[in-house]
Structure formats: C-alpha cells, structure tokens
Write a structure and sequence with these properties.
- This protein has helices at about 1-20, 25-40, 45, 50-70, 80-130, 140-165, 170-200.
- The chain is rod-shaped.
- The N and C termini lie far apart (about 120 Å).
- Helices cover about 85% and strands about 0% of the residues.
- The protein is mostly helical.
Length: about 200
C-alpha cells in the first residue's frame, strides 16, 4: 500500500516537473517576431506584400497555437507544435525580407532605365517640336505641345527626387506617366509632319 502511494507521489511529482518545463518557447517566439519585423523594415509591405502576408499568417498560427495550449490544464500543455510553427514563421519572415530586397533592387534598376529613357525622349520631343511645321492656325497647337513638354520636364524633376528618396516603385510609375505624356507630344508632332507632307503631295 505504501509502495503504491509512494509510486503515486513520485508520478505526480514527475508530472508537475514536466508541467513546470512546459512553458511557451519564448526564444523561438522572439526569433519569429524579429524576422517578421525585419521583413517590414525591409519594406516587404511595398515590395513583397504576398510574402509578408504569408509570414504574418504564420505568426497568427503561432498565436493561435499558444492560445490553444494556454486553455489546457498545465499538466497537459505541450509547445512542440508551437516551436515548429515559430520556426516556420521565422523562415517566412526571412524569406519575405529577402524577396523584398530582391524586388526593391529590381524596381531600382527598372526605374533608373525608365528615367533615362524618358529624358532621352524629352530631348527628342524638344528637337521635333523645334522643327515642327509652323503656319497659319498652328501656333495654338505649338503652344499647347510646349506646355505639355514643360509639364513632363517638371514631372521628371520630381521623379528624380522620389527616386533619390528610395521610393523606386513610385519613381517608376511617375516616370512611366511622364514618358507617356512625352510620347503623346511626339505622336502629335509626327502627325502634323505627316499631314503637311501629304498636303504637299508627299514631297
């Protein structure tokens, strides 16, 4: 009888000891949190939104699992799954940061190329406008085209400022808009040249 009682006490003590060790894996939680915060710092929200969303979903899974274990009686809590989920969240956060860095560099290169192309196109449009046919009734059109080019030129100055601030996606979008405006001017000038050539019998 005493032997069984002693065995029971030892078993209870062992369970209490195990329960005392079954604590939330704080180091793993902190590592996962740091990885996701690192992804945010790397501007994943702008350059890798899907990867960041996946990392945040993984973090939510960790929180849900911790909540499930917290509701259990202390003797029955297990944080094995939580540790695994933390590892997954950490990996997802690191992946999001890496993807953001890659996409940001890609956007920087694309914005750089587009800005240069826009500036070349602006110079070409100015040259075309200077040589555009002028005659009765064309002055208003010329003034309008000059105004459009001036606006595009100012837009490119602003693009340079946005680019310098590291906002490459915005710079790319604005450079694209300026390029479209410049191209419209070039098309209008070319149309006027073609019309004048046709009126003169193709000469």
């Amino acid at each position: 009888m005493r032997k069984n009682l002693w065995f029971g006490l030892v078993l209870i003590a062992g369970l209490i000891l195990v329960a005392g060790c079954a604590k939330p894996p704080q180091m793993d939680i902190d590592a996962a949190t740091a990885a996701i915060e690192g992804a945010k710092t790397a501007e994943a929200a702008e350059y890798a939104p899907r990867a960041l969303a996946s990392a945040q979903d993984a973090a939510t899974a960790v929180s849900d699992e911790l909540a499930v274990q917290q509701k259990k009686f202390a003797l029955f809590r297990s944080y094995k799954k939580a540790k695994e989920l933390c590892a997954a969240a950490k990996a997802a956060g690191e992946q999001a940061a890496q993807t953001a860095a890659t996409e940001k560099e890609k956007a920087r290169q694309e914005a750089t190329a587009l800005i240069e192309q826009s500036k070349v196109a602006l110079t070409e449009a100015k040259d075309m406008l200077a040589k555009a046919p002028r005659g009765k009734g064309s002055q208003a059109d010329i003034k309008a085209l000059e105004s459009d080019l001036a606006a595009a030129e100012m837009a490119l100055v602003e693009v340079d400022n946005v680019f310098a601030s590291g906002k490459y996606l915005q710079a790319k979008a604005r450079a694209n808009a300026a390029m479209q405006q410049i191209q419209n001017v070039k098309n209008a000038i070319q149309a006027a040249i073609d019309a004048r050539t046709k009126a003169r019998g193709g000469k």
